[in-house]
């Protein structure tokens, strides 16, 4: 597996506070090396429409991007990300630069993975990259996106949309969900889970679709739950019941159920299932163990039970999933391609 190169197109020369968040998410996820998780990490470069270091900010906020890369920096990148566009471009009061749209089309035509966060979808749509595709953006902008680009199938009910080599996310923190999803596709569940823990990301954010990024022990904010959840993740290969977890936490089953649901948004049995599936992912990625043994070690039981839950949750069989990770008898999948075939 390879992280590859990530080029980020920054459009405005005066970055609003709101848009700094999405840009910061991209820089945090892809720009900070984690050699203990994957080496090499991503090669990140920020590309400005006007990279002149002497140009003062055009607005009152005082933030301007200084980078040696112009839009030509998008050429050759494995992944191109548009973290945002100016609000005036969303409202239609200002057109996006032609040179940006040409650079995006060139990248898409040569097969780069194209990604937008929040209002960045307007740039991909204006370049024609979202034509005939399902996409999303911040819920405050989806109506405008659908109105201005009727050829795009806009879905305002999800955190992000993975449409193979084109991915879009809703606004603000949903951009982090999508960036972690990309890490998971590129480097595997274990790396994404560990990175999510370092970023203190909650477990399994709801969003109307199965998400691949789940941390092993969620940050619950409940000191009484963290130790028992850690204890449970170390014993996933053993039978575990709600009564077992409640007794370990020193609570009644009803109290434990209520506190876990309040802290994580899920029930104890759903939480256990997600941890078992995450363990199965890691075993399929990192070992050549038979599917039967993966089922046993993850606590999902028989190979048939593993296949049923895995296919239901991820839309792919364990065997096909393993093929996406070369080195254990699988085939190589180009970064940006989702492996999704008919189940057994």
UniProtKB/TrEMBL annotation:
Which GO MF term does the entry hold, naming one? sequence-specific DNA binding
Report domain HTH araC/xylS-type positions: 226-324
The record's section on InterPro entries has: Class_I_gatase-like (IPR029062), DJ-1/PfpI (IPR002818), Homeodomain-like_sf (IPR009057), HTH_AraC (IPR018060), HTH_AraC-typ_CS (IPR018062), INH-QAR (IPR052158)
Which CDD domains does the entry link to? GATase1_AraC_1
The protein's superkingdom reads Bacteria
PANTHER family per UniProt: ARAC-FAMILY TRANSCRIPTIONAL REGULATOR, HTH-TYPE TRANSCRIPTIONAL REGULATOR RV1931C
User: Any idea what this protein is called?
Assistant: Helix-turn-helix domain-containing protein
């Amino acid at each position: 597996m390879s992280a590859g190169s990530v080029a980020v197109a920054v459009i405005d020369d005066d970055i609003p506070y709101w848009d700094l968040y999405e840009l910061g998410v991209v820089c945090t996820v892809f720009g900070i090396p984690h050699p203990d998780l994957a080496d090499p990490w991503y090669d990140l470069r920020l590309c400005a429409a006007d990279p002149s270091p002497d140009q003062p900010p055009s607005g009152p906020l005082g933030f301007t991007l200084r980078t040696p890369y112009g839009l030509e920096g998008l050429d050759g990148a494995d992944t191109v990300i548009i973290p945002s566009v100016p609000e005036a471009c969303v409202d239609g009061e200002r057109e996006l630069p032609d040179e940006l749209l040409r650079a995006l089309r060139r990248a898409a035509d040569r097969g780069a993975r194209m990604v937008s966060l929040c209002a960045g979808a307007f740039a991909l749509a204006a370049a024609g990259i979202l034509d005939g595709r399902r996409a999303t953006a911040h819920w405050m902008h989806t109506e405008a996106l659908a109105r201005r680009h009727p050829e795009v199938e806009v879905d305002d009910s999800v955190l992000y949309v993975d449409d193979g080599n084109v991915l879009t996310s809703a606004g603000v923190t949903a951009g982090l969900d999508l960036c972690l999803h990309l890490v998971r596709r590129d480097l595997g569940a274990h790396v994404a889970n560990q990175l999510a823990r370092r970023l203190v990301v909650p477990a399994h954010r709801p969003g109307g679709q199965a998400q691949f990024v789940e941390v092993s022990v969620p940050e619950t904010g409940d000191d009484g739950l963290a130790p028992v959840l850690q204890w449970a993740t170390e014993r996933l290969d053993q039978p575990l019941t709600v009564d077992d977890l409640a007794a370990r936490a020193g609570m009644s089953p009803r109290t434990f159920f209520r506190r876990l649901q309040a802290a994580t948004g899920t029930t104890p049995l759903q939480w256990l299932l997600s941890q078992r599936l995450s363990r199965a992912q890691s075993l399929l990625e990192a070992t050549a163990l038979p599917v039967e043994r993966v089922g046993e070690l993850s606590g999902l039981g028989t190979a048939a039970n593993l296949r049923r839950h895995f296919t239901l949750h991820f839309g792919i069989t364990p065997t096909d999933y393993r093929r996406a990770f070369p080195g254990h008898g699988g085939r190589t999948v180009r970064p940006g391609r989702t492996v999704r075939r008919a189940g057994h």
